[in-house]
Amino acid sequence: MASLFDKRDYADTMNSPVREIKLSIKDPSKKDSTMGMIDPAVIKGDNKFFAIMDEYGNWSFRYKQGTLPEGLSGKFTAISKALHHAKIYFEKRNIEVTEVKDVHAT
Fold it and tell me: What's the rounded Cα separation, in Å, for the pair 80 and 11?
């Protein structure tokens, strides 16, 4: 199966300054012991995880509700760098990025 990150510019082809990032558990048998400070509601779909571009072109992460873990609090100069950081961060916690969606304001 091809990864979302096989194409370096995948996320850069979207237009919105807001990207919803969907997550799932890689190995359900290890779920409780490895998730760390990740909000379980994000995995269930009851909360949402976003990458948001600020007015200076820097990307950062946000939950729709709640506080992010310290490891996700940085700023990134490109969405591809932000997603790469998220992928590495979540892989260590038995979580994978399954989808990145352009979120258009309505």
Answer: 6
Output the CA torsion sign for 69, 101, 86, 90: positive
Residue reference for tokens 């300054």: 17
Count of residues making up the chain: 106
Residues 63-102: tens digit of each pLDDT: 999 999 999 999 999 999 999 999 999 998 889 999 999 9
**Whole-prediction pTM value?**
0.79
Query: Hunting for tokens 């919803």 — which residue is that?
Result: 20
Strands 49-53 and 95-102: unpaired
**DSSP 3-state helix, strand, coil percentages of the chain (rounded to 5)?**
30, 25, 45
Domain boundaries, the chain: 15-102
| Torsion (CA) 67, 68, 69, 73 in degrees, nearest 10 | -130
